[in-house]
Design brief:
The complex is a heterotrimer. Chain A folds into two domains: 1-80 and 157-236, P-loop containing nucleotide triphosphate hydrolases (Rossmann fold); 88-154, no CATH class. Helix content of chain A is 36%, strand content 25%. Chain A has helices at 42-49, 73-78, 96-103, 110-124, 139-151, 169-182, 196-202, 220-225, 227-234; strands spanning 4-13, 16-26, 31-35, 57-62, 66-67, 81-84, 157-161, 188-192, 205-210, 213-218. In chain A, the strands form two sheets. In chain A, strands 6-7-8-3-9-10 form a six-stranded mixed beta sheet, sandwiched between helices. In chain B, the strands form two sheets. Chain B has a four-stranded antiparallel beta sheet with strand order 1-2-3-4. In chain B, α4 runs antiparallel to α5 and α7 (154-163) runs antiparallel to α8 (167-182). Chain C has one domain. Chain C has a two-stranded antiparallel ribbon with strand order 1-4. Chain C has a two-stranded antiparallel sheet with strand order 2-3. In chain C, β2 and β3 (196-197) form a beta hairpin. In chain C, α3 packs parallel to α8 and α6 (127-151) packs antiparallel against α11 (251-277). Chain C is globular. The chains are: A alpha/beta, B mainly alpha, C mainly alpha. Chain B binds chain C through residues 269, 273, 275, 277, 331, 334-335, 337-345, 347-349, 351-352, 354-355, 359, 468, 472, 475-476, 478-479, 509-510, 513-514, 517, 520-522, 524-526, 528, 538, and chain C through 69, 75, 77, 145, 148-149, 151-154, 156-158, 160-162, 164-166, 168-169, 172-173, 175-176, 242, 287-288, 291, 294-295, 298, 328, 331-332, 334-336, 338-339, 342-343, 346, 363-366.
Chain lengths: 236, 538, 366
């Protein structure tokens, strides 16, 4: 079983400390939401897990053996980690199908790709638009396509950075349903989101980050009644 | 520095014994000597040479007159005394001692033999060196004395040196005096000479002393050997220090030019992500603007011509800034989201500018008047000479750095530029006119290139193609320094300039460029953002 | 946000399936082969044969740059280096071959006061070895430079100007007379090609045909490449390298492979170029010439292989004509052409033909 364990992670940009000794454990099968005000370090956390940013100190363990902080982005991805970026990051010059083909990753043999792509197209509901150039998709369709791209590799750890930012209410509900459907016993999912209703709909537990530190960890209900969390969110 | 030199002169004066109480020439005896046989003539001439260091000037002038007459066959020797003729073969002349006119119907006119001629010429040279009315005459005298320098006593050269007013000639006399003393048969004098040479260290002095190691006395005379070794060590150390200073100075001046060329580039690149391939041509335009100012001065105010370089500073800045603003407004404005295309566009601009200048002004190198403040230099230590033109460039670069920093740190435009450099979108959200800031910043960057053009005029040859010469170097400075950091640009310019100057004497200019490039590529392995860029979040 | 809702409810009209087939490239390949046959059959004037052959080599060079610039987003301003490597090795082969057959040492050997060619020239009279050496050397230099740059993620204009510095330094190096490669005069006076006298019309025709066939092969091969899964990864890498990396692909390896391939194609162009013009010297390493290659590609149409060919042929054809007809005007025309294309026709002259609607991605990031 693979889960994600983050130990005492510290990240600095110049003199600014973005993450200050953050520890976090996500179990397999769990959907964890990380919330917090702007600048709390949420996206930086995902940057470290996916290998884009290297920390000053601390470890990020995937399963028991792999320390992600020593790996390149590609190695981390091949270890089963996929990330959906905040800004929809699809390849605008390629078709939806070609985007998904690349999303399968280098490990999936060419013969197995077609079936995988077909099933993902169904999951994200873009089958009718499979041969359209991704640059012409709407914002919501791009968000789904990107979720499809990260799904195509059947990741063990899924990182979602604000998957419903800029979506309509209907699209948000659809996305929440999609993410609930992604839950699997051997898969850990980490979601960053501002939309509390969405978090409530998808997350098992929440972690509240504030100024680079963990402020609260537990149920969303508990977070809503925690005095410090209320101060941070409402006192500003 | 004049103080230092004055002290040195005083020290030298103290070391050299003052001329003994002035003897005077036995004029009659001298004249008789010249009228004597060959041996007598040589005796008289050599006597004069030996005592010339102490003789009063009028005696020397008297002797020079007679010697000249003898050499030109105008000295007649009647039985009593000597006569100076106006021209060879004249029937009468003036008495050498009294100056009275006197006929000399069949007086003997001695002819100089080869051996006597050498002594007489040397004596004439010594007299001319000591009494010649102008540097040319004294220089000719020195040249004559030099041919038989071994016979010339040190006192003559010392006296000539101390009395000499012409700097170049004085230096020649000093060198000659040292050389003569170094090969003197008198060991004491030789050692004194070694010390004197060592007191003025230079590459030439080093070579002169090193040559003495082959002298038989080096093996035979321990005192001589010790003196020579000590002198050589002093000189070598001083020369090494002087050469080191020269390397630093040259590196600094090269770095200044690099910085001037790169500073504008760095501002533009940091702000807009645009690599301006026409920056070299902007420098060229700055130099041509300087030329224009010079020509305007020549026509309108020839008396103030020397000031044209100063007047060119604002003109070149404004003119090139204007060109930059026009280029930005017409072309680059449309290309901000396509940096690689803007690269090609600025290349096209550079091609256009080079050929426009070629067609309108011509391809030849421009001729610049060099005012006193950018020509020559002052020798500072050993072989290290501070040349004014390079000092001009260094000072210019320093002033540009300070001014640019002031603009960036202390003015509203600078604040805008820094804001847009750091976060264009946020700056735009806060209502900053980013387009206008871009244009002004491009103008500023171009204007700095124009200033670099002014600074280059006294050093570089100015022609339409000059811009391509250092553009690659200045790009390397920007890459190494990091985006948008003027401090990084400065440090990178110093580093690359220094590295080039350091490596060049060892392995040549091409190898220096290769090593610097490889070094930069390797450096970027560790710090891809350059020296001074702050890590930023994606 | 409301815009997003609308687009979801009303999807954009018309499926815009990307054309897998590329009629332009197919047409150009056919044209090259047809012209090659035409040269063999009709035997036109020698200058025309030579011009066509040279244009074909420039087109190959342009395709090699378009492969990395148009499809990987890497603008090399140093491709002249790889072209020069091919050219220099070819010249070394031609001279060695001449020495082996005639026994006469080349001019620069006599000029330097040497007895014979330097030792590292050994074996270059064998054409197969020379060909392999040229390609391998270009590939190796590209590999080392690419490895250093891509590994440390030097990209964008940074890569461009460092590659420019590379070709500049190479130029300084080749201007030296002690390299054993001809110094500033370069190498010329090639007597023979495969045993045939260099100046004969048959050799000229053969060279032009070889260049045209090579162009057709390079076009077809690169077209197959960019249409493949690797090609799609190249486009993905160009548009969002971090995204591709976080999907598990080693973009360094991808970029390095294509970069080396591109360098070897450029070297091939150099190999074909030198026997046609009969000279190679360090001026091919001038930074301006490398920028000009990028200009051909930009003028023809970045990111389309056919565009690169059209750009190279058009610019060089114009140059052949104008630099004799009105040499003073050529730089002005070239710079004007660049500015017009860059400002008005972002996709090059192919915009005029409007073969396809302009894809969105060309508006971004480049």
């Amino acid at each position: 079983m693979t889960g994600l364990v983050i130990e005492a992670l510290t990240v600095a940009f110049g003199r600014f400390t973005a993450l200050d000794g953050v520890s976090l454990a996500v179990d397999p099968g769990e959907v964890r939401a990380v919330i917090g005000p702007n600048g709390a370090g949420k996206t930086t956390l995902l940057d470290v897990i996916s290998g884009i940013t290297k920390p000053v100190s601390g470890r990020v363990m995937l399963g028991d053996r792999i320390d992600l902080t020593t790996r390149s982005e590609a190695e981390i991805a091949r270890a089963g980690v996929r990330r959906k970026f905040q800004k929809p990051s699809v390849f605008p010059a390629l078709t939806v199908r070609e985007n998904l083909e690349i999303g399968c990753g280098p490990a999936v043999p060419a013969g197995a790709r077609a079936a995988r792509i077909a099933s993902v197209l169904g999951e994200i509901g873009l089958r009718p638009r499979a041969d359209i150039i991704a640059g012409r998709l709407s914002h919501g369709e791009k968000q789904w396509l990107e979720i499809g791209m990260v799904l195509a590799a059947e990741p063990a750890l899924l990182l979602l950075d604000e998957p419903v930012a800029g979506l309509s209410d209907a699209e948000t509900a659809q996305t929440a349903a999609l993410i609930r459907a992604l839950r699997r016993p051997d898969r850990a999912i980490l979601v960053i989101e501002h939309d509390m209703d969405f978090v409530e709909a998808v997350a098992d537990r929440v972690t509240v980050l504030h100024e680079g530190r963990t402020l609260y960890e537990g149920s969303l209900h508990g977070a809503r009644s925690d005095a410090r969390v209320i101060e941070v969110f409402l006192g500003r | 520095m004049p103080v230092l030199r004055a002290v040195l002169v005083l020290v030298c004066l103290a070391l050299v014994p003052a001329p003994a109480a002035a003897a005077s020439l036995d004029r009659a005896g001298f004249a008789a000597g010249l009228c004597d046989d060959a041996a007598g003539q040589v005796r008289a001439a050599e006597g004069l040479i030996q005592s010339a260091g102490e003789l009063p000037s009028d005696d020397l002038a008297f002797a020079a007159n007679l010697l000249g007459a003898l050499a030109e066959r105008r000295l007649a020797c009647p039985a009593d005394g000597a006569l100076l003729l106006d021209r060879p073969g004249a029937p009468e002349g003036r008495d050498a001692l009294t100056g009275l006119a006197r006929a000399a119907p069949d007086a003997r006119v001695p002819v100089l033999g080869l051996r006597q001629r050498a002594a007489v010429e040397t004596a004439r040279g010594v007299s001319a060196l000591l009494t010649g009315p102008d540097p040319a005459a004294r220089s000719a005298g020195l040249a004559a004395a030099e041919r038989r320098i071994a016979t010339v006593p040190a006192a003559v050269l010392d006296r000539a040196r101390d009395a000499e007013s012409d700097a170049g000639l004085k230096e020649r006399i000093t060198g000659l005096a040292q050389a003569a003393a170094l090969s003197s048969p008198d060991p004491v004098r030789r050692r004194a000479a070694i010390a004197a040479v060592a007191a003025h260290p230079s590459g030439a002095a080093q070579a002169r002393l090193a040559a003495l190691k082959g002298d038989p006395a080096y093996a035979a005379d321990p005192a001589f050997r010790a003196a020579l070794d000590a002198g050589l060590a002093t000189v070598s150390r001083a020369v090494a220090v002087g050469d080191g200073l020269a390397v630093v100075y040259n590196g600094l001046s090269f770095a200044s030019i690099l910085f001037m060329a790169a500073a504008g580039l760095a501002i533009i690149f940091g702000l807009m992500g645009v690599i301006n391939l026409a920056q070299g041509e902007f420098i060229m335009l700055g130099a041509y603007a300087t030329y224009g100012v010079q020509e305007a001065f020549r026509r309108l105010a020839p008396g103030l011509l020397d000031l044209y370089l100063v007047a060119a500073i604002p003109v070149a800045f404004c003119a090139v800034a204007l060109v930059g603003i026009v280029v930005e407004a017409l072309i680059l404005r449309h290309l901000y989201r396509r940096p690689l295309m803007s690269l090609l566009a600025t290349w096209a601009v550079s091609l256009l500018l080079v050929n426009l200048v070629r067609v309108t002004v011509g391809t030849q190198n421009l001729q610049f008047v060099m005012p006193a403040y950018v020509s020559g230099g002052v020798p500072l230590y050993a072989d290290f000479v501070v040349t004014w033109n390079r000092l001009f460039a260094i000072g210019f670069a320093a002033a540009t750095l300070v001014l640019t920093l002031l603009i960036l740190r202390r003015t509203p435009l600078g604040l805008d530029i820094r804001a847009v450099t750091q976060n264009r979108d946020m700056a735009a959200c806060l209502g900053l006119p980013t387009r206008r800031v871009d244009r002004l910043a491009f103008g500023l960057g171009s204007g700095i290139a124009g200033l670099a053009g002014v600074a280059l005029c006294p050093i570089y040859s100015v022609n339409p193609g000059m811009g391509s010469g250092f553009i690659v170097d200045s790009f390397m400075v920007v890459v190494l320094g990091g985006v948008g950091s003027l401090l990084g640009t400065l440090v990178a310019a110093l580093g690359i300039g220094g590295a080039n100057v350091l490596i060049e004497p060892v392995s040549g200019a091409v190898a220096a460029k290769v090593i610097v490039l490889v070094g930069i590529i390797l450096f970027l392995q560790r710090r891809p953002e350059g020296l001074f860029a702050v890590r930023r979040r994606r | 946000m409301s815009g997003a809702v609308q687009t979801v409810l009303a999807p954009p009209a018309g499926p815009a399936r990307r054309a897998v087939r590329d009629p332009l490239v197919a047409g150009l390949v056919g044209l090259c082969l047809a012209v090659a046959v035409g040269l063999l059959v009709a035997r036109p004037a020698p200058y025309l044969v030579n011009a066509l052959g040279q244009l074909a080599t420039f087109a190959i060079l342009a395709v090699s740059l378009d492969l990395v610039w148009g499809y990987l987003g890497i603008l090399s301003l140093g491709h002249g280096l790889f072209f020069a490597i091919g050219g220099y090795v070819c010249a070394m082969h031609l001279l060695s071959h001449g020495v082996a057959v005639t026994g006469v040492q080349p001019d620069f050997v006599q000029f330097m006061g040497w007895k014979s060619l330097p030792a590292y020239w050994a074996g270059l009279d064998h054409p197969a070895y020379a060909l392999v050496l040229a390609l391998a050397l270009a590939g190796l230099v590209a590999f080392l430079f690419g490895l250093a740059s891509f590994r440390s993620r030097v990209n964008g204009v940074y890569f461009s100007i460092i590659s420019q510095a590379l070709v500049y330094v190479a130029m300084l190096l080749m201007y030296r007379n002690d390299t054993g490669l001809g110094g500033n005069n370069g190498m010329t006076g090639f007597p023979l090609l495969f045993g045939w006298p260099m100046g004969s019309p048959g050799v000229a025709t053969g060279l032009a045909v070889a260049a045209l066939v090579a162009l057709a092969a390079v076009l077809a091969g690169t077209r197959l490449l960019v249409g493949s899964a690797v090609g799609r990864r190249m486009i993905a890498c160009r548009d969002d390298e971090t995204r591709l990396r976080t999907l598990g692909y080693s973009t360094t390896r991808l970029k390095l492979g294509i970069w080396c391939l591109s360098a070897m194609i450029a070297a091939l162009a150099g190999i074909l170029y030198v026997p046609q013009v009969g000279i190679i010297n360090p001026r091919v390493l001038a930074p301006d010439l490398s920028i000009e290659i990028a200009v051909w590609v930009a003028i023809g149409g970045l990111g389309r292989l056919g565009g690169a060919v059209i750009g190279a042929v058009l610019v060089n054809g114009l140059k052949f004509w104008l630099s004799t007809a009105m040499p003073e005007a050529w730089p002005f025309i070239l710079s004007g052409l660049v500015l017009v294309v860059v400002l008005v026709l972002p996709n090059g002259l192919l915009d005029l033909v409007a073969l396809r609607p302009r894809p969105n991605w060309l508006r971004r990031s480049r």
